[in-house]
Amino acid sequence: MPKAKGKSRRQKYSYNLNRKRLYRSARRRAAPRIACSHIRHAWDPAKSVAQNLAEMGLAEDPNKAVPIPKKKLLGMEVESGGRVQGKKIVRKPYVVNEMEYEASLPEKKSNTLSRDLIDYVRYMIQNHGENYKEMARDEKNYYQDTPKQIKRKINVYKNFYPEEYKDFIASLKPEKMDVQ
């Protein structure tokens, strides 16, 4: 079957199409992405970003909220223009209070090591003690780690699980005494 006429030609750029206007209107319609749930729940879509943030007691522009003091000029202090900024009314103070409370909570430690790495380190310590060169030549050293790399992995294990490491070393000592 023959091709349709004109399909093999490249498309011509339409110079008469106003792409700026299309892009701008699409951006205007999109609602702002808000990551914080407290702000998201208190957000009023009928108001501007500046109005919403002012009602919550948050700053729209951090440079205006906390101005950088002017440096001393030739030994004399330069005073600001003597303007007194009007106090803004905070209608939704609970947003800032909730955010401060959430920030004051202690962080949970989510640092853990993989089960494979823990088993690897325990196997090496159990069979070779502190001899890292012997560990590097072990057949279970699948990744062909150098003695320094193995030592680093053992130190990481010591730092992540200090109590578990002490218990493990303590359990190894009676085995060594029975052998002698």
UniProtKB/TrEMBL annotation:
The answer, when asked if Chaperone is one of the entry's keywords, is: no
Q: Which domain of life is it from?
A: Eukaryota
**GO annotation, cellular component aspect:** nucleolus
> Which keywords does this chain's UniProt record carry?
Nucleus
> InterPro entries under this entry?
Ribosome_biogenesis_Nop16
The cellular location(s) given in this protein's UniProt record come to:
Nucleus, Nucleolus
Q: Which family does it belong to?
A: Belongs to the NOP16 family.
Does the keyword section mention Transmembrane helix?
Answer: no
Q: What is this protein called?
A: Nucleolar protein 16
Q: Which GO terms describe its biological process?
A: ribosomal large subunit biogenesis
